[in-house]
Amino acid sequence: YKSDAPGTNPFLPIFIDEIKKDLEGCERNFLLHLLSYPPKDLPKKSPEELISQHDPDASTPPEPDIEAMQQDYLKKMGATSGFLQFGVSPVLLDPDHATAGAELTDDNADILTEDEFSMIGFEPSFVRPIPQLLEPGEDEVCWLHPETEHQIMWDNTMCADSSKGQQVRELMAKAFKGPLQSTQQATLLSELETDSKLVYQCGLTPKRLPELVENNPGIAIETLLKLMSSSHITEYLQMLVNMPMSLHSMEVVNRLTTAVDLPTEFVHLYISNCISSCENIKDKYMQNRLVRLVCVFLQSLIRNKIINVQVHKDLFIEVQAFCIEFSRIREAAGLFRLLKTLE
Q: What secondary structure does DSSP assign to 95-110, as a single string?
């Protein structure tokens, strides 16, 4: 405690009691040094050195303010627990000269114990009743022996006949490369109708959809209808919009629009791509043929109320400009007259 304030020293009461006694000059000077600011070399000196180096004629150290130290000490003790304040002091008194050299016997063996040398006061124990044990409930330790009824879960696909799935994959692989025969188409559509989950295992991906549309549009229509509840249907529709315009692609889109409610944005985007394809083609013969197909396709959408050109003005203006550009073609002129009746 040499670097702490004197009021924080736990032995301060002992020092104050001793300094008030009639002590010899060496002992009094030693206590005054402890209560004020002791010399740096004081902890290194032995008691014999302190006694031998004491000069009776030298001036005594200034006496500190004992009352202020007591007040500081009492304030510090006020922050401790009540039991600690009234505890037995851990300081041991010096034995008298008569018993100083006596041997430790069974009669005085329990005078000094190991706990007496603790720097903490021996506070009295807090008397409190022992808590009563509560009777355990029936459901208190149910987790020790949980009553869980285990049921056997059968895997119905175990040892199942996978030949149908293999046959569907083989037929779908052929459908990507070329038109299937009528018997093969009937077999493939029958298997897909029997097990709707086979459409997810047949090998059809969004990238391979254009191949299926061009070679087997009927199968493409049926598979897309079964994929409408899939989370990947947007990818399939996006691929259908971006593929080159053809008779088969328009057939697929036309059948889809009459069977299910396709997103309006998808239908409008497909119409815009068809118009753009007709305008960019260089071959006049193919251009006239595609314009006729697009006009028939648009008339079918308008008459079946798949699209509403009266509400979507941008689409109305785009289709009208398309009809005026290809007004020399009879189907374009018929589409233009249909638009005029809707104004």
A: PPHHHHTPPP-TTTTT
Contacts of 268 (CB under 8 A, 6+ apart): 307, 312, 315
Residue 327 token pair = 């007004």
User: Residues near 26 by Cβ (< 8 Å), separated by ≥ 6?
Assistant: 50, 51, 54
What mean pLDDT, rounded, does the chain reach? 78
Burial-class residue 186 by CB neighbours within 10 Å (0-12, 13-18, 19+): exposed
Question: Which residues make Cβ contacts (< 8 Å) with residue 287, sequence separation at least 6?
Answer: 278, 281
Distance of CA 205 to the CA centre of its chain: 33
Cα–Cα dist 234/287, whole Å: 30
> pLDDT tens across 268-307, in order?
888 898 888 888 888 888 888 889 988 988 888 888 888 8
Tokens read off for 283: 């071959």
Query: Is 76 strand, coil or helix?
Result: helix
CB 247 within 8 A of CB 293: yes
- Neighbouring CB atoms inside 10 A of 46's CB total 8
Residue 45: closest CA among 56, 36, 54: 54
Q: Tokens 């638009």 label which residue?
A: 339
The answer to whether 327 and 333 have CB atoms below 8 angstroms apart is yes
The residue type of 46 is S
Answer yes or no: are the C-beta atoms of 188 and 212 closer than 8 Å.
Answer: no
The span from the CA of 203 to the CA of 174, in Å, is 11
- Tokens found for residue 13: 């009461």
Asked if 84 and 120 count as a contact pair (C-beta separation under 8 A), the reply is yes
Specify the residue for token string 């785009």.
Answer: 318
Q: Smallest Cα–Cα separation from 168: which of 193, 188, 196?
A: 188
The count of residues in the chain is: 343
Residue with tokens 């040499």: 2
pLDDT band at 341 (very low <50, low <70, confident <90, very high): confident
Give the list of residues 6+ apart from residue 293 with CB closer than 8 angstroms, or none. Answer: 247, 250
Angle in degrees, CA 286, 292, 293, rounded to 5 = 90
